Amino acid sequence: MSADNKFVFGIDLGTTYSCIAYVDENGMPTVVKNMEGDNTTPSVVFFEDENNVTVGNVAKETAVIEPQKTVSFVKEHMGKDDFDFAPYGQKISPEEVSSHILKKITKDASEQLGTEVRDVVITCPAYFGTAECLATKHAGEIAGLNVLAIIREPAAAALSYLTRHQGSEKTVMVYDLGGGTFDVTVMKIGSDGAAEIVCYDGDQALGGQHWDTAVVDYLKDTFQEQHSDMQEDDWMPEDLQDLRIKAEKAKIELSNRMQTKVTLNVAGRRAQIELTREIFDSLTQSLLSRSLDCTDRALAMAIAKQKSAGESVEDAVFNQALEQVQNDSQAAAKGIVDEILLVGGSTRMPQVAAALTERYGLEQQILDPDEAVAKGAAISALAEYEGRVEHWQEQQKNGSLDMQDEETKEEAAKYQTAAAVKTTSIPGFRNNKLSIRQAVTMAATKSYALQVVVNHEEVKCQNLIIKNAKMKNGEIVVTQRFGTDEADQVNAQILVYESDLASEYFEVSEIDNGNADELGTATLELPGNLPADSPLDVTFKLTQEGILEVSAKDVTNGGEISVTMQATAGSMLSAAEVKALKEKSKRIAVV
Ligand code: AMP
User: Fold this and answer.
1) CATH code at 471?
2) Cα 346 to middle of ligand 1, angstroms
3) Is 439:445 a contact under the CB 8 Å cutoff?
4) pLDDT in tens, 97-120
5) Which residue owns the Cα nearest ligand 1 atom 22?
6) Ligand 1 centre from 345 Cα, in Å?
7) What is the residue range of 275's domain?
8) Same domain, residue pair 247 and 293
9) β-bridge mates for residue 183, sequence order
10) pLDDT tens across 331-360, in order?
11) Does residue 179 sit in the same domain as residue 320?
12) Residues 124 and 147 grouped into a single domain
């Protein structure tokens, strides 16, 4: 590869493993191996000291010796304020930890290909809300990357699928069981080859690591039975780390074999424990069932949406569809879905295909389990980059660029060089009139509400955007007129919430119960002399990146406010903090 060739990259930043891909000179989405020669890198970070960080397999092994300096599963903490990690007295944010993973895999890809890795698209799960999506973007920026976009994992999987799909219209269900999370998505592929996401469901705490935990518990109990003199505190943190690594290995072996043996040495005692696939399947039965419950719900939502013909889905219609799925899962599934696509490393467990066949009787296709998402992200990165190059060239031609403005100059400089390959070279898009940007129509992955006073007495939350609503041209914009509650109000407070609740209204108690998260508050100043019920227009705009922008207008006087909710969510880093962390990151060596 010539170093002059410009490539852009897609990154699957996973809970347990991460992966990077690009579209090669022949238009093929291709995974780049890390310096250890593996297609995926464990998302494990070891903080040796303030200036040295190790990521990947070595970190995973070091975790056995120094668990207090090692972070695994950091993705679970993105956008939340529940992460307490200070390996050398200084608190480290989830964004920083993730930035080291990104640095390691981009640095390795750069060395492998002999080219710069700068422009990337990073994926995040469907269930990620505004705060989590933004934290992912910040992680990329801290790593010194130019984050072209954040895209949803199911959309990336859909793009990967479209490179292979030929011909007919069909409805596909993507069952994506990764290391830490489970996502199920129903999508329609049209006659023009475009994919439309119909609905999502999933479980944020269901993935390969939970299967590992079931094995850990079993091995520990069995060891304990064989050495009844063992006390709970004889298990040192390093023993538990070692046990976890062995449990995952045993699980992976059982995907190809009917039995395996695990040897443990703990506190001077030894045991060799046999684990059969049958025992493994029974230990993890309840986890598998949870994934099927989500899958039932996704199917029910797809059926309910079809019945509701584009209108929002009433609870009663959904419940009726769910009953239909639960009563005869095979008939219901076959009535709406043509095939199931398996994505995510954990779908290699034979129990997954067996359970899906038994429950739904549908044909399954395995789509590069560990790589489909990164490859889809690479396709999206190329489309995004191409779009930016065109945009800046056009601006330059029109003479509408203000090159005195430093920011404009900096931005334009990023898109001077066209990519080495065109999106039209990618199979599936080669002879297609469809552009990649139009290839996948997303649906909202969360609902967005504001607090309202109904009939001047009851406080409720009203969803303006409802989960699974279609995102036309990559966004949803909803404007609704409200009235002031009282005469002479000096301002109107707009309290905004994000949730999975799908009804138009929900009770405020849902917030206290943890079913809806406050995203932020916007205050619209009013002149103070308006009668009650004076019109106020509130607009919610949800972008494809999962970021909500809120604006409000006092219709009588024309006063307006506009806020991007990202800025107000509690745990978010400010732009200045991101910049400072980016500087700090430059001083840290990541291997
Ligand atoms: P992903 O995030 O999609 O890369 O999935 C990672 C998860 O897949 C981890 O929990 C791995 O232990 C699991 N995994 C990878 N390969 C296998 C396999 N052959 N059998 C079972 N689980 C696997």
Assistant:
1) 2.60.34.10
2) 4
3) no
4) 999 999 999 999 999 999 999 999
5) 346
6) 3
7) 208-283
8) no
9) 176, 202
10) 999 999 999 999 999 999 999 999 999 999
11) yes
12) yes
